[in-house]
Structure formats: structure tokens, C-alpha cells
Amino acid sequence: MGLLTPLIDGHRRPRGPYTVAAALLRHLVPQALERDRDLVAAHDIEIRAAAPELAPLVPVRRATIDAGLPEDERILVPAPRRTLRLANGLAEFFRDAVRPGQAIAVCNGAEADPTDTELLDVMMRRIPPDLLTIMLYSGGPDPPPDTRSADELWALVDRCMRDGFLHAAVELGERGMARTEPGGGHWWRFAQRTATALGGLGRTDDARAIWDQVRSVSQDPAMHAAGAYGTAMLDARHPDPAQRDLGRARRWINEAIAISTLLPEPLDRAFKLGFDLNGLALIELRHGRPGAALSLVESAVELARELRERHPLHRMVLLANRAQLLAALGHVKEAMEDYAAAIALDPAFPDYFLERGNLLFKLGRHEEALADFERAMRAGPPLPEAYYNRAELHIVRGDTEQALADLGRVIELDPSYLDAYINRGGLLAAAGRDEEALADVVAGLVLEPGNPHLLTVLGQLETAAGRLAAAGEALDRAVERAPGLAAAWGNRAVLRYAAGDLEGAVEDLSRAIGLRPEPDLYTNRAVALRALGRAAEAEADERRADRLS
User: Fold this and answer.
1) The pTM is what?
2) Residue spans of alpha helices (H) in 397-449
3) Of 184, 219, 482, 521, which is most buried, counting CB atoms within 10 Å of its CB?
């Protein structure tokens, strides 16, 4: 076993995100280009994101339009999960590019950027050690002091925001704020990016503190409008509904709209006001008023017409948001038109293929949905959601093996994807592969110990194994946590029947039928009723089952 490269110093300070990845890529990409140019091209996005200095060497197959836009038009901030997609793509490149029996050694692992920490975790999970051994040491030499100028820091922050390296954006943005005059133009750029990154990471209190600082040091209307919008979105977009204060969000977004209406430059006013109206639309949607949200988005779309060819990403987002609302209100044809227009603006952006595919799936247009899910897969680094959605389509079509393969791919890419364990565990249990199903249930319950879907499958498996007490405990917890889950009542009915509690079985089956009247439930209740001697009721259930079959 030989070292693939000299010892890699993983400390984030000299280079920032993907220090380890870039060291490996600088070694492997030139060799891979000589042996298999298609392999490099297949991972063009990941390589360019992790090692921008290699961009001139990398054949470009997939590129979103934001790469050619000026700074003020790059409005999309990738979600934190984007780095997991990049890590999986890079791991697959390294797996295919290295020769077997090699090793890498990385020091200063404790000081590595989160992008490298995540990447190393994915590599150790997905690359067999006999192919590539990874030796990681927490300590190492201290790097020289960081003496970057404000301009150098800004270039790094801009890169981090463009590619979704939010932890580094916060760390470097805070340094930039400390080295520039509060309230000035340079300071504002750092403050805006830092607050946005903090919000994306869920650090809402820290983000709010920066927006408050903006209001304390500036009298610039544009800064105050942006600060009001940013503060509003901390509440409107909070991932935990219980922590959203929609009243406060509305007050802040109204302030943003009031200021944006007064901005003197027409194009800036049209862009910023449309942005704010789109934010208010989200708040209306959170209030359960999709019609009001649609009216606001339509106003924003009209304002965007004034921008002509500028701000294509803004127009794309507005069209996609209008498509979502139109679909929710039953205007399917118009929604499809808007999705098509949004996708046409940037065909390399995968999200709207997924959304349109989901709508097509609900409409029963399975071939078209499948095509969109697969376009989303091809548009960028590995996307677990696309495989998950395709698996659901395979389930509906009865193609269990393909569904299991896609769900396995989801879990390979993201072991924290709870719904994949739920669906795969259920499919495996239905196929009689109980040991594999139990492994998925156990893994899923580690992620969410009280998940009622997993408890239902667990109860089903325990019943089949004859462990009735354990089955009863699992199913009792399932119906307690999710009284609207028909499968939990149906499976507890099976358990009660097996335990000789016929009245309890009928009672649970009646609850299940009230939630989801399916033929199997009527058939099972007929069996229990007949065992109780209630033949007329049993025959009625049998007729109902026949009508629904």
C-alpha cells in the first residue's frame, strides 16, 4: 500500500472549503483526463466547485446560468444539503479514478472545513478500504496567520455563497465585516452574505443580530429594505413551524415593500419590489391563503417584465413559484406552462424537474414524470430526492425490485433519509424479507425513535415472528402517535386476531376502514366477524370488498 499523495494538511485556514478534496483532485484529474476524459466530464460540477483552479482543464457538460451572471443577479443560495451532493459526486470520482491498494493521509482533521469533514465521512463510507485507505489525524502543524485583504476575503465569500459552502461563508464573512467600515458598501456585502448564510444554517438568532446591526449603522434605504426582507424570511422560512412568527414576518416584509416602493431607480425598484412581494406570498401561503399568494406572485411576475433580459434567475423563481400555486389551486395546464418556462431559463437546474415530475406523478402521467425525475438526476451531482421520487413511481407501478434499487441508492447517498427506510422496510416486509426489513426499521428508529410508520412495520414483523407482546407494544405506540394512520390500526387488528381478541380486531379494522376503505380491510373484518358468528355483517363486508376490488 502506497500513499497516493504526500501528507495532506486539512486545516481550513490557508485555503478554505474543500482543502482536502482539492489536493486529491490536483493529483487525480490530470491523470484521469489522459485515461478517461468522460469520467472527468461526468463530475464537472463537483470538480469545479471543489477545485476552481482546475476549471480550465475540466470538460463542461453541465452548467447553470448563474455562472455567467453578475454578482447582483446571482440570487439563489444553495441549501446546506448541496455539499452532501457534491461529496457523493466527488467520492464516486475518487472511487473510479484511483488504482486499488492506495492510501491517503490527512492531518489537522479537527480544523478541517465542514465540506472536507463531510467528504471524508462519505469517502470512508462509500469507498472500500482495500481500494483506498484513509488515515485521518486530528492534529497537525499550525498554519501561518491568515493575512487576507478584504478583497481576497470577498472573493472567497462570493465563491462560498455561490456553491453553498455556508459554514465557511459565515466564518469568512465575519472576518470581512471586522476588516471593513460598518455601514459602508464593502461591509454591507459581507453583512448581507453572512446573515443569509446564517439563516440557511438555521442560526436564526445570529442572523437576526446581523440584520439588527445593519439597521443600527446604516441609513441607506436599499440596506434597510434588504434587512427587513431578510429578517422577515427568518420567521417565514423557519424549518420548525412552531417557531415561525408569521405576524412578525408580515410586519417586516411590509416595511421592506414600503421602502422598495420608494427606490428611485426603476429597474432596481422593479426587481426589489418583486422580490419582496414574492416573500409576502410565502407568508400568505404559510397562513393557508394560496389565492392571495398567487395574486402577489403574479404582481411580481408583471414587475419582472420591466427587467427585460436582466435577472433571469429571479424570473425563473417567480415562474416556478407561480406554477406551484397554480397546481395547488387545480390550474394544472397553466402550472405546466410556467414550469416549462422556468425550466427553459435554466435547464441545468434540477429542482423544477423534480417539482414538475411530482405534479405529473399525481396526475397519473407516469412516463412523463419518470422522464423529469431522470432529467433531475442528470442535471447535477447525485440527488437523493430524485431517486426517492422514482422509487415511489416504481412502487405505484408494482415494480418492487426497481423501487428497492432506487431506495437503496437513496440510503447509500444519504443514510439520514428517514422516508427511504420507511418505504424500503415496508416493501421488504411485504415481500417476506423480514430480516432485511427489520434492519431498515431499526436503522430508521435510530433516526426517529417514535416514528409511527416504522413502528407499524415493526409490529407487523413482530407479529409474523410470533412475538405478540413486542408487536402489541410497537403497534400501541403507533396508533397513539398517529391515530390517523390506517395501516397501524389494520396491523394491530391482525395482531389482535392472532391473539384471539376478535372483538378488538373488528374494532381496529373499523377504525382503519373509516380512514382508508380498502378491499383487504373489509375482507379481514369479514373474517373476524364470521369467527364471531356475525354472518350477515361478514357477507356485507365481503360484498364491499368485491365492489372495491
Assistant:
1) 0.94
2) 400-413, 418-430, 434-447
3) 521
